[in-house]
Amino acid sequence: MPSGPDYDYWLLDLDGTVVDVEPGYVQDVFAAVGDRIGYGFTTEQAEILWHGLGGFRNNQLERWNIDPEAFWEAFHEVEDGEAHAAHSFVYPDAERFAAVDAPVGVVTHSQSYLAEPVLEALDIRDWFDTVLCCTDDTGWKPDPAPVRSVMADLGVRDDEHGVLAGDGPHDVGAAWNAGLDGVHVERHGHDRRGMCVLGDHRVRDFDELFA
């Protein structure tokens, strides 16, 4: 199995993998969403949903008797790209992708109106050769379709060995479904996530992967 630097190309998730936001912003967003749907989110619930702890978010919402469609409609009404960007930061261990000597692409569930201001504000857009924000048309991870779209944009060959790294089980699933190695970056700990996510590599951060 190749070590991190030996991959011919890299695909990355964005939120929770390369960048994240300050906790206070998460609480403000969920307070506003809760006002719209008539639900009082606790601090723990907000963090579980924001970071995808405990599995797929829609399943978690249903366990709390929250209609996923109503939640996401309110969530997208509340989230503002400029405010999100103003409270975002880059994980220090992800800064190595500014200088990785290989094609690097992003495939993210973050919508373009949120992702693009973050990339601009943090001055990291030029780290990536292509960025795809998933939609119903592109498909959503673990569907391999958006992954393969990014691979096509990068112009990778069939004989090249690539990897997709992300912080959720859907990232590893998308990698495997597209024939890539999958890296799970567990920034919150398996105990807090409530599960262990399988992967070709399971690491706490990119420093551990590249060590």
From TrEMBL:
Keyword Hydrolase among record annotations: yes
Record keywords: Hydrolase
PANTHER family, alphabetized: PHOSPHOGLYCOLATE PHOSPHATASE
Name listed for the protein in its UniProt record: HAD family hydrolase
GO molecular function annotations of the record: hydrolase activity
One Pfam family recorded for the sequence: HAD_2
This protein's record includes keyword Hydrolase: yes
Segments traversing the membrane: none
EC number, UniProt record: 3.-.-.-
Origin superkingdom: Archaea
